Amino acid sequence: MFTRPFLVSAMLCGLAAAQPAQAQDAGAGERIAQNWCSRCHVVDSGQQKGGSDAVPTFSSIARRASTSQASLTVFLATPHRGMPDFNLTRAEIQNVVAYILSLRDRP
Ligand code: HEC
Of these four, 3, 7, 8, 73, which has the most CB atoms within 10 Å of its CB? Predict the structure, then answer.
């Protein structure tokens, strides 16, 4: 049917518009991860360079049973050994956390 794709995209637009302004943005989180984190971490499965065997990949972090939105948020808000303090804003942390958790469902 010709009208179907239009209807679906209209519905998706409606959904996107209904998101509150503070909503987590995994896409923005992915950009932060690529710019700032990929020097040490493998942040996505297509990554060709950067990353180190000594540092957990984002996808392995996402798959750990102990990983949750709360655990990642606390981790990223606290400076720790081996990782520079990026001074991420709360919104940036939320976006990176959303991105990392989104890797759970990817191959
Ligand atoms: C300079 C290298 C470096 C950069 C850049 C870096 N990390 Fe890390 N990260 C590490 C190391 C090393 C560890 C392991 C720390 C440990 O085990 O104590 C780690 C651990 C982590 C963990 C926790 C894994 C666990 O064991 O629970 C998370 C989450 C994380 N990094 C997220 C990030 C994010 C998000 C960024 C980008 C904003 C980032 N890292 C940038 C080096 C880095």
Answer: 73
Does ligand 1 lie within 6 Å of residue 91's CB atom?
A: no
Task: Classify residue 49: in a domain, yes or no.
Answer: yes
Q: What is the maximum span of the chain, computed from C-alpha positions, in angstroms? A: 57
Does the beta carbon of 47 sit less than 6 angstroms from any atom of ligand 1?
Answer: no
Q: Is residue 11 part of a domain?
A: no
Q: Whose CA is nearest to atom 1 of ligand 1?
A: 83
pTM: 0.80
d(CA 47, CA 41): 10
DSSP E strand boundaries for the chain: none
CA-based nearest residue to 87, from 95, 78, 96, 99 = 78
- Containing domain of residue 72, as a range? 24-105
- How many domains is the chain partitioned into structurally? 1
